[in-house]
Amino acid sequence: MALPRKRTLPPSKSFDPEDFIDLPLVQQSLNNAIQYFAAEAKDILHDETIGPPEHTPGSPIEVVFLVWWRMEAARRAISHDPLGLELFLQRETEAGKGKSYRLDFVVGLEDPDECLECSERGIRFPDIAVEIDGHEWHERTKEQVDSRNQRDRALQSVGWKVFHFSGSEVVRRPLECVIEVMDFAWDALCLMRRQLRALRRLPRVA
């Protein structure tokens, strides 16, 4: 009995992985994913801007900064590692001599456990404030501008790093403003974590 002949299959078409992104199937999936995450991001940002008045943006320009911060943080989380930083809205702080100020944004640590451990070990993440001006929403007179400058000096005198942007800066180049703040905070976070790792290797003193 003769054995059946072995069929020879035609060689399959080979693809360079770099070409996959251009395939219609992948392009359609990519577009669907972008639309999905854009809708999710819009809902999240909407919830942030309609929360309690003490923790919501004080002007449309602040919303612009917040939107770009959230998007850049998400991009970095996808490209590298989670940012590990949080942008807190409308926080009150004291700056000596009984003076207190409401800041547009404060950059802090995202992980409360990391924050607690650093505090226990005497490692301090810098106080970082972001203030955004716009004559339509904030200062309108010379006296108000003088008051703003005095506030900045008071904050700096007690150790705050204050990033002050004009409203037109944020509108014209929002991503650059966000990256300026985020890179400074990220460098500070990396330094803090290096110090923390070094202390973890040392025995604790009872």
Summed up:
By secondary structure, the chain is an alpha+beta fold.
Describe this protein with a few key phrases.
206 residues; alpha+beta; 4-stranded mixed beta sheet; 6 helices; globular
CA(first)-CA(last) distance:
87 Å
Point out poorly predicted stretches: none
**Looking at the structure, what is the overall shape?**
globular
Q: What is the averaged pLDDT score?
A: 80
Total helical elements: 6
Largest sheet: 4 strands, mixed
Q: Major sheet: order of its strands?
A: 1-2-3-4
Beta fraction of the residues?
15-25%
Compressed to H and E, one letter per element, the order equals: HHEEHEHEHH
Folded structure, characterized:
The protein is an alpha+beta fold and 206 residues long. Helix content is 50%, strand content 16%. It has 6 helices and 4 strands, in the order ααββαβαβαα. The protein has helices at residues 24-49, 60-79, 112-120, 142-157, 167-172, 174-200, and strands spanning 85-94, 100-109, 128-133, 161-166. It has a 4-stranded mixed beta sheet, sandwiched between helices. Strand 3, helix 4 and strand 4 form a beta-alpha-beta unit. The longest helix is centred in the C-terminal third of the chain and has 27 residues, at 174-200. The mean pLDDT is 80.
